[in-house]
């Protein structure tokens, strides 16, 4: 019934039971059961009523000790020790012995005799051992049996021995699968319909044009199939490749003839609209190269080296040099290496700053060379001597009866170089703006590098002779410079926003200010202008020099936080030696001293709090006009009250209070600033000064009373020295 009601629904097998009750308590019958389930055994206790109900269960591996209580005579009591000891009394000795024998067998078979059996007759255990050796329990044999350590070691050794063979077989199977897939995809068969369309090359109707397009795409797919060198020697494949090349040449000839017949008068177009045609043709050429260049620059900036390699191979032929060339400009190979996750962000942004410099010189030289090419080569040849132009093709002399008109056109264009270059390089400014946006996304301080680069270039151009002729460059870069200044101002505004919550120590906006100054000074080190940077420093440092902190969010003293931060700012500005921030450095030093004094004054009253309050009251009475010798006649400040207060502060109590104060200061002070010795020294000096003030007040307000404090100045000095040495 127990197995049917409790264990069968859970797919468990009942091995043994014993009816028990707890020893020493009111008799309340329960049943201890040993049940088997893969992969282990568990011991359970169930209350018995109308229905059996599971109340507790323990894994057999958690059983530590089985105590039979008596070796010499039969005893109904026994103990099971798990995380605690459970004491039971069995209904009969036979059930108890059968239950213990079952535990003994399970312990020997599955737990390597890890359970201790004490106070149990040895004859009973030997009987169990002999019986299990002869027959064994069929139910237990059906359960899971763990491997011995030796079997486990042998199995692992065998697996390690044959692991390379298994891996090699898997790699070989994968390689075969890939080669089969390539062979399946390598289709060198071109349909008869496509062959006919390419042979005819008929483009007279839209339907035939579509058929030729489909055939050309199919031919391109066949010719782009990767074929191993050995396969090309096969006769069938060689014949197919020859046929593809023949179809390609025939279709190219047909297509060229068709285009030539349609655009017979195309060489007249440059002379009908020379300005627009020239700008349109060159703009397409430069737009493609400019976009490819900035796409490569963005990939380098983002560290996408694999994509950079793909773009690089698609734009320029491979070079044996370790550097990468593009549009005649060299990208050092170290720029292609993405920074590791643990690298310092400053070194990473420095490499990206170099990228900006390369970009600057590239598009600068690009435009200047293009400008010279336009006005020294292309325009005179194209418009004054159109016979030799490569864009328009040969033009008969009779079609240009008046060469002066062409020269007039050239003169008008020469007066409007900015307009012409704006149309030719219309894609340059949007690409530059996109590149700068990418820089800002990668690192917010990159706007500094952009600003320095553009400022230096504009400064160089102002004194150059090419400034007038390259007005297009001035206009375009002025717009980009304005964008860079706006980004720089936004960065400064974001840095001036103070954090609304802080735990103490060096505040976040102080750390951000230090980070910004370090980076900006490194960027502007060789800059020819730094007016914007000085303004930014002045604005930022104004946001750092706060007057107070909201103490609601701080668990420490606000004066302590302000003291540490102003000390940090002073030390940092002293190291940087920035001329425009010298006044702020001196102010930081002054503010640091003020907050140190406030902090010391506030915490000074804690060791002698009641004594401090008493003498504060004495000073208040004197300030109100009470004579010093009459203060002792005030009830609250009489000699008896003074003695009571002084008795509360013997030397040992003062030392204990100072030690508590030292540990509190040590707990809350930031370890980065190492201000503990400074603060503790200030505490010592102020404490001694206050002690001397109290002694002076006693002599002036309580003359002849003989009242003195329990400790002296020498005692205080020894207290401070002892506390300092004990903490080291």
From TrEMBL:
Entry-linked Gene3D superfamilies: 2.30.29.90
Span of domain Exocyst complex component Sec3 PIP2-binding N-terminal = 25-110
What biological process terms from GO does the record include? exocytosis; Golgi to plasma membrane transport
**GO terms, molecular function:** phosphatidylinositol-4,5-bisphosphate binding
Quote the cellular component terms of the Gene Ontology held in the record.
exocyst; plasma membrane
Q: Which Pfam families match?
A: Sec3-PIP2_bind, Sec3_C-term
The domain of life for this entry's organism is Eukaryota
Matches recorded under SMART domains: Sec3-PIP2_bind
**Protein name stated in the entry:** Exocyst complex component Sec3 PIP2-binding N-terminal domain-containing protein
């Amino acid at each position: 019934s127990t197995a049917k009601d409790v264990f069968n629904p859970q797919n468990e097998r009942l091995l043994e039971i014993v009816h028990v009750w707890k020893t020493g308590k009111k008799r309340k019958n329960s049943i201890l059961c040993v049940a088997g389930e893969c992969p282990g055994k568990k011991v359970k206790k169930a209350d018995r009523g109308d229905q059996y109900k599971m109340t507790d269960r323990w894994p057999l591996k958690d059983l530590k000790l089985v105590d039979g209580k008596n070796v010499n005579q039969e005893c109904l009591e026994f103990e099971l020790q798990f995380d605690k000891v459970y004491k039971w009394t069995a209904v009969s000795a036979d059930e108890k012995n059968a239950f213990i024998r079952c535990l003994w067998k399970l312990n020997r078979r599955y737990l390597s005799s890890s359970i201790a059996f004490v106070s149990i007759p040895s004859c009973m255990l030997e009987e169990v051992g002999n019986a299990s050796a002869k027959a064994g329990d069929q139910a237990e044999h059906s359960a899971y049996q763990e491997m011995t350590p030796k079997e486990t070691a042998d199995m692992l050794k065998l697996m390690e021995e044959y692991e390379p063979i298994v891996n090699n077989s898997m790699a070989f199977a994968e390689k075969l699968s890939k080669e089969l897939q390539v062979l399946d995809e390598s289709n060198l068969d071109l349909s008869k319909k496509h062959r006919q369309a390419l042979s005819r090359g008929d483009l007279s109707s839209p339907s035939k044009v579509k058929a030729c397009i489909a055939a050309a795409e199919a031919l391109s797919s066949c010719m782009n199939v990767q074929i191993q060198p050995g396969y090309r020697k096969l006769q069938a494949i060689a014949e197919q490749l020859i046929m593809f090349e023949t179809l390609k040449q025939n279709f190219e000839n047909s297509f060229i003839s068709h285009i030539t017949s349609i655009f017979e008068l195309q060489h007249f177009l440059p002379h009908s609209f020379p300005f627009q045609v020239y700008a349109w043709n060159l703009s397409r050429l430069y737009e493609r190269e400019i976009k490819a260049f900035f796409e490569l620059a963005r990939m380098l900036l983002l560290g996408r080296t694999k994509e950079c390699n793909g773009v690089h191979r698609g734009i320029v032929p491979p070079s044996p040099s370790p550097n990468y060339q593009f549009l005649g400009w060299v990208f050092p190979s170290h720029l292609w290496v993405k920074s590791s996750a643990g690298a310092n962000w400053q070194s990473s942004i420095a490499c990206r700053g170099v990228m900006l410099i390369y970009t600057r010189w590239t598009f600068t030289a690009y435009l200047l060379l293009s400008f010279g090419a336009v006005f020294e080569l292309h325009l005179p040849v194209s418009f004054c001597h159109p016979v030799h132009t490569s864009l328009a093709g040969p033009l008969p002399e009779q079609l240009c009866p008046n060469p002066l008109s062409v020269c007039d056109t050239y003169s008008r264009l020469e007066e409007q170089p900015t307009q012409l270059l704006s149309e030719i390089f219309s894609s340059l400014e949007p690409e530059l703006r996109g590149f700068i946006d990418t820089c800002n996304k990668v690192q917010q301080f990159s706007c500094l590098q952009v600003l320095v680069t553009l400022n230096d270039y504009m400064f160089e151009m102002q004194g150059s002779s090419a400034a007038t002729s390259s007005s297009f460059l001035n206009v375009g870069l002025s717009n980009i410079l304005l964008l860079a200044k706006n980004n720089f101002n936004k960065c400064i505004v974001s840095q001036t926003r103070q954090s609304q919550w802080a735990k103490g120590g060096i505040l976040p906006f102080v750390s951000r200010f230090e980070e910004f100054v370090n980076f900006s000074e490194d960027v502007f080190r060789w800059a020819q202008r730094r007016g914007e940077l000085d303004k930014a420093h002045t604005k930022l440092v104004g946001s750092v020099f706060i007057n107070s902190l909201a103490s609601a969010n701080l668990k420490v003293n606000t004066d302590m936080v302000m003291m540490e931060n102003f000390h940090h700012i002073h030390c940092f500005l002293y190291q940087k030696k920035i001329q425009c921030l010298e006044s702020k450095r001196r102010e930081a030093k002054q503010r640091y001293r003020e907050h140190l004094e406030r902090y010391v004054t506030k915490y000074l009253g804690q060791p002698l709090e009641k004594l401090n309050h008493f003498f504060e009251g004495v000073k208040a009475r004197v300030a109100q006009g009470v004579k010093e010798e009459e203060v002792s006649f005030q009830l609250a400040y009489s000699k008896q009250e003074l003695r009571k207060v002084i008795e509360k502060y013997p030397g040992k109590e003062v030392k204990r209070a100072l030690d508590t104060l030292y540990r509190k200061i040590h707990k809350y002070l930031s370890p980065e600033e190492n201000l503990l010795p400074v603060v503790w020294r200030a505490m010592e000096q102020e404490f001694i000064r206050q002690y001397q003030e109290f002694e002076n007040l006693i002599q002036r307000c309580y003359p002849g009373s003989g009242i003195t404090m329990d400790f002296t100045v020498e005692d205080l000095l020894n207290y401070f020295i002892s506390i300092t040495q004990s903490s080291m």
